[in-house]
Amino acid sequence: MFKLIVYSISIISLSYVASIIYKDLNKASLKTRFFFYLAVFMELWVGILAIADFTSSYSVALLGVNLAVFFIEGASWSFLFFALSYLKDFKNKIVYYFASVLMLATLYLGLTEKLIYSVNLDIYGAGIDKISNLYLPIVVGIDFLIIFGIFYLLTIKKKVSKIVKTQINIITFATIIDLIGNLFGNEVSQYFPSLKYLIQVSTIANALFVVLIAYTIIKHKFLDIREAAARSVTYLFTLSAVLLLYAVPLVLLIRYVLNVHLSIANISIFVLATFIIGASFQPIKFFFNRLSNRIFFRDFFEPQAELDKLGNLLVGNIKLTEILEGSKKLISEAIKPNKIDYLINSLEETIDKKELIRLLDKSDLYLINIEGNTKNIDLNLIKNMEKNGYVISIKLRTNDQNLGYLLLGYRKSGNLYSFNDIRFLTIATDEIAISLQNAINYVQIEQFNQKLKNDIDEATSKLKSANSKLRLEDQNKDDFISMASHQLRTPLTSVKGYISMLLDEDAGKINKTQREMLDQAFYASSKMVYLIADLLNISRLKSGKFVITPSQINLNEIVSQEIDQLKDNAKSHQIKINFTKSKEFPDVSMDETKTRQVIMNFLDNAIYYTPPGGNIEVKLAHDDTSIELKVIDSGMGVPRQDQHHLFTKFYRGSNAKKVRPDGTGIGLYMAKKIILAQGGVVTFSSTLGKGSTFGFKISKKGYKV
């Protein structure tokens, strides 16, 4: 009795596991498929052993134990392939063919009873009596497959997530209990007849396997069928409740109303049989539903389920090709047309398709079904559609745009399209049109971005080429200036030196008129020497050879000397320069020659850009940390829009060009460079029409080497 109950529970439980997977077997992964095969082979194994144990026919029992070897081998191969495909799909066809050949050979040996020659029938069931020489190698091979599969599962545990590791632990443990337990029970009972009762170990192992796998499915999401398993558990509880409501009252009716005596074994078998019939009802119903759908309802489909699939495909998808191909596949699976295509206005290029689009646009109909009423359809359009094998056209439209058309051919079944089919298609095309609009917009944005990038790259390339030419021209200009400056500096220095000697009367006495003329010549030559020095310094700046040569100087003396050189020039412009020389003034470490250039530039600009009758105030002050020079004029000032360009190379203010056309625009540029190179800052302020202030501020410590 115990053996019957355990066998029944094992078969029902394995059927339960297999039926859960079978419902979605077409969509299942390779891993799930192999586990399904494992459950089926184990179910057949347990079933054939149950038949062999409970039959009174010797021939049936002998055939049963022979076939049991084939089923356990199938279960072992399924377990091995399941293990190998756990992390990735295992698709080695050679191994599949090898396993198939071995299993077919075992099946042949089992059917011809060449594995086990004889059995013993007793109260423990069918015991193996005599075996062939092939039996033990096959059993060892089965053991090897199980051990290798378990070993592989254990080796991949380090490479998987925590939940998958838990699944592997439970599956491995359950498989060891079931497959090894069954082999242990059968082999021990065979070789040790006194321990024949241990054959019950195999049936208990099967029950434990199912319990552990069910626990893994529900608790640890094994095989991604948790929801189906939970529903099936609910179904089993419902079945149990129905069993109590119907089977128990029926037993009571037979026993006490009809006065038919039933033993405990009879009642147990009756209740168990009722339970098996009820449990098998759902899988049998499912099987015959699928069979009848294939035979009688080939065109049947669930519109809402297909629309849900379509919605999942379209949500968040902006790839045009995925939307078009994915929706075509879904509609093809549901409607089953012999042909399905899209005509997208912005994508079609062939003449035939453009002509069909033109005819469809001309008809201005949302849906065209030439299987039905064709009275309002252009004859040319009908001919064109039939020529291309289409019978239905549905417009892909949004609120403000017609994107194209969905075209379908005849149904593969030969049946006409039904009202439900048309309704499904119209709902589906409205959803598809919205997604297509988003995808087309995305494609257009991508194309625009690419075009913009190409334009920018082209413009950048042209700009780089122009910049290269400008740099070359700028280099040529600098080379010319540097060469010309070097050539002019020597003779100008000689001119300035000889004029200075004449002014010092080294060549004899000079009169007043001669002195005035020589003073003007000396001023002009000094100015030219400073200009050439500026040009040479610009060249040195670009080549990295600009060097500050510091020495201890007294700015009070230098400013006074530069003012003295410019007094005659200022007088000729009717401008008064005011400067109060301090009796005591600290020395500072600066480059004397370059600093004189800066002071000369500030004073010279003040004279030229101040109108006659104006004043120039020169202030030199110091505090505990710094020395500051200011040259303040009452001239025309600098326009606001010109001020931020004033210290750039070769730049001149718009009003300065009118007053002094011969200016170079390098004096202020070099003045800033010189002061910054010595650690100081240039100061500047100006108001148009009221004058300007130029100067610099430097630390008392001066230039630091």
Mean pLDDT: 78
The order of strands across the largest sheet is 8-10-11-13-12
Amount of helix: 55-70%
- pLDDT below 50 for ≥5 consecutive residues: which ranges? none
Strand content: 5-15%
Q: What oligomeric assembly is this protein in?
A: single chain
How large is the radius of gyration?
Answer: 52 Å
- CATH architecture annotation name of the largest domain: Up-down Bundle
Report the CATH superfamily of the largest domain. Rhodopsin 7-helix transmembrane proteins
Q: Profile the largest sheet.
A: 5 strands, mixed
Could you tell me how far the N terminus lies from the C terminus, measured between alpha carbons in angstroms?
A: 108 Å
Strand segment count:
13
Could you say how many structural domains there are in total? 4
Structural class: alpha+beta
Number of helices: 20
Give the topology.
Elements: H1 2-22, H2 30-54, H3 58-84, H4 93-111, E1 116-122, E2 125-131, H5 135-155, H6 162-191, H7 200-220, H8 226-257, H9 264-295, H10 303-314, H11 320-335, E3 340-344, H12 351-363, E4 367-369, H13 379-387, E5 392-397, E6 402-408, H14 419-503, H15 512-543, E7 551-553, H16 555-572, E8 576-578, E9 588-590, H17 592-608, E10 615-622, E11 626-633, H18 640-643, H19 654-659, H20 667-677, E12 681-687, E13 691-699
